[in-house]
Structure formats: C-alpha cells, structure tokens
Specification:
Blueprint lengths: L1 H22 L9 H17 L3 H51 L16 E2 L3 E2 L2 E4 L4 E6 L4 E5 L5 E3 L1
Antiparallel strand pairs: 1-2, 3-4, 4-5, 5-6
C-alpha cells in the first residue's frame, strides 16, 4: 500500500517535470502532447492512490490542477525568454559583428560568442537559433504565431 503511494508520488514529480518541459516548448495550448501526458498522469496517479472512487477522483483532480500549473509555469518561462529576445536579441547581432571583425568570419554556433545568451528558458536553453556559413548568418526566434529573424545585412523583422 505504501509502495503504491510512493510510486504515485515519484510519478507525479516526473509528470510535473514533463508538464513544465512541454510548457517551455512555446507552442501554447495548440499542441496535443500536454493533453495526452496529463490524461495519462491522471489515470496512472488515480489508479495507484486508492481503490475508493472518491479518493481516485480527488487525486485525479489534484493532479490535473498541479499538472496545469506546471505546464503554465513552463509557458511563463518560455514567454520570459521570448520577451528577453525581443528586448535584447539585437545585442547578439552586435556581438556577431564584433566576432566577425576579430576573426574574419561569423561563428558556426552562438556558443562561440563566449557570452551569456539572452532568451534562455529554465530547462531547454535559449530560444535563439542561428545558421551560419562563416560569411553570412541568419538568426531567429519564434513562438507559435510570430517569427522574428535577422541576417548579417538586415535587422530583426517579425513575420507571421
């Protein structure tokens, strides 16, 4: 009996971690995976907690609330990173230009800039993406609706 509750507690932590991670994807409520994971969590936790339907219902509802909060907090982490990009992504373009002036080419990855990158999420890292062939680059970030992109010749522009 205690082992089932212990397993339910461990599973709850794992499911909440997954919920947060899914929220950090930045796809909002328009993805199916959080619904599937949440539903599986409700089933697993409520079946492990008790044979009494009242406790199963209560544990399923409690898990639903906790999972929703974890997903929401992951979404908040994503939008904090997204807003940070809107405010500070131009600094990365400046750093890329300085890198190119010193080294004669653009870095192949942003980590070569040796600076803290803005736009960071708790679990998934930065939402900034970059492609470079050494002589040109494209850098961008996006949410489920808008993509902001820039190149070595153009500043950041928003595209739907």
């Amino acid at each position: 009996k205690y082992m089932k509750k212990f397993i339910a507690g461990i599973l709850t932590i794992i499911f909440l971690f997954i919920g947060f991670w899914l929220g950090e994807a930045g796809k909002g409520l328009f993805q199916i995976s959080p619904y599937l994971v949440g539903f599986l969590g409700i089933l697993a936790i409520s079946l492990l907690i008790s044979n009494n339907w009242k406790y199963r219902t209560l544990s399923g509802f409690t898990f639903f609330i906790l999972f929703s909060v974890a997903f929401y907090m992951g979404d908040v982490s994503f939008y904090h990173a997204y807003n940070s990009c809107i405010e500070r992504a131009e600094n990365i373009r400046i750093a890329l230009s300085e890198f190119q002036s010193k080294n004669g080419n653009y870095p192949s990855v942003l980590d070569e800039l040796n600076m803290p990158l803005p736009c960071s999420r708790c679990l998934r890292g930065t939402i900034l993406e970059c492609e470079s062939n050494g002589s040109h680059y494209k850098i961008w970030f996006k949410d489920w609706l808008v993509e902001h992109s820039a190149t070595d010749k153009e500043p950041f522009l928003a595209h739907k």
